[in-house]
């Protein structure tokens, strides 16, 4: 660490929040320029909508979304139209502040008129999405999956996904949303930072118990019930690839602005946190992408009022140490090819199909360019 500034060049630079050092002329940086902006809720929703308009069958894994306040009239009109065409439809929506994190400011509504039209919605834009009312439950609890994805490079496009992730549970038994339970965050919101304050939160002593478990333990449980775990993994891989493809055009603009081609500069890589919800039929749904997923491997425990200590978290340690270790091995400039990492490289043919789709989209977005291509190594 260089608390008072860096003096010597390094092979790998590990920035805490975002790419911010314009004086790096070589080596590798663990952040992409513009990534934090590209995965914000509004930006991500716009990118996914563009792709869904072009490829509706390929991009049906992201909830239908509207941007507030600019699309509030559109949201009201579309919901009214859908209700008129299907009077039995009783939707629930979730409102998420654009720059919010750790569940801050999120709330559920049953009707567009329930949106909190205060001054904050103007100064703090948000996204409103269809709420997934029929999630897969384990022990009667709703949960989501945090998967760690390494974007190793944009050119060539190279993506890795960790074999294991975290399953983060709500702390109250799930019930479908009603006007009476919309406010019960411990039932509807899977955010760890919210549920840890619940009296029902259980710190995990093993991989398959407690309020935070390994994803592999959930897969084992599903497999024992006869679920097609291989198809589930394939669907998740497809979701990750297509999401990265949707983000790539904007990331390229930021990258070329900060690190122009032909000038000395670093190369970039980044670990992303994908938050995914499984529906009752095991279809994965993308909730959001986190540019700065927490890599803490301990939690705070209150010994006495106001006195805390850090206690190791076996589940976090098992998953996150492997992610950091394999990322450093993959990025090690002295060892370009190692066979002992524990990550899964996406199937080449899947990536080729994804890049082909990207090239089509890129050319449609900018018809002035006559030819676009991406190299695969």
Automatic annotation (TrEMBL):
Q: Which GO terms describe its cellular component?
A: ciliary basal body
GO molecular-function term, one example from the UniProt record? ATP binding
Keywords of the record, alphabetical order, are: ATP-binding, Ligase, Nucleotide-binding
| Pfam families linked to this entry | TTL
The answer to whether the entry has keyword ATP-binding is: yes
GO annotation (BP), single: microtubule cytoskeleton organization
What is this protein's name?
TTL11 polyglutamylase
Q: Which organism is it from?
A: Quiscalus mexicanus
Q: What is the lineage of its organism?
A: Eukaryota, Metazoa, Chordata, Craniata, Vertebrata
Gene that this sequence comes from: Ttll11
